[in-house]
Design goal:
Number of domains: 2
CATH architecture of the largest domain: Roll
Helix content: 10-25%
Number of helices: 2
Structural class: alpha+beta
CATH class of the largest domain: Alpha Beta
Strand content: 35-45%
CATH topology of the largest domain: 2,3-Dihydroxybiphenyl 1,2-Dioxygenase, domain 1
Shape: globular
Order of helices and strands: EHEEEEHEEE
Largest sheet: 8 strands, mixed
């Protein structure tokens, strides 16, 4: 089911401070900035991996967005998220909440392993 993993993301308390740190200070390449979603994407110079940075939004709840400083969320790409969720539920994978969609970009759902480590299943729409 999982076809690739080239992306992780984490949550910060202040997106502007994060942009300054990772782009200006650390020197990563700013790949995408989506202020309407409080979201940045950065990459190393060789573009080998993409890192998402999200500002914490207390209104989304912890089932969709962990608190700042709680670590990276590894993502796994699938062709069809609805089909993947159905198959993984049959295998007793624990999902936290429902499939979320950012129209034209991605469908995603947060899950966790037996130790509570969170990961995300994603279907890219573009």
């Amino acid at each position: 089911m999982i076809k690739s993993s080239k992306f992780s993301w984490f949550v910060v308390s202040d997106i502007n401070k994060a942009e300054d740190f990772y782009f200006n200070k650390l020197g990563l390449i700013l790949k995408q900035k989506m202020p309407e979603f409080n979201w940045l994407e950065v990459a190393p110079i060789d573009n080998s991996y993409l890192i998402g940075i999200s500002a914490y939004n207390k209104n989304t709840g912890d089932h969709f967005m962990p608190k700042p400083g709680s670590g990276f969320i590894m993502t796994f790409d699938v062709e069809n998220i609805e089909e993947a969720v159905k198959i993984y539920k049959e295998k007793n994978i624990k999902f936290l909440g429902d499939i979320q969609e950012i129209p034209g970009h991605v469908k995603m759902i947060l899950a966790e392993d037996e130790d509570g480590n969170k990961f995300q299943i994603c279907q890219h729409l573009n």
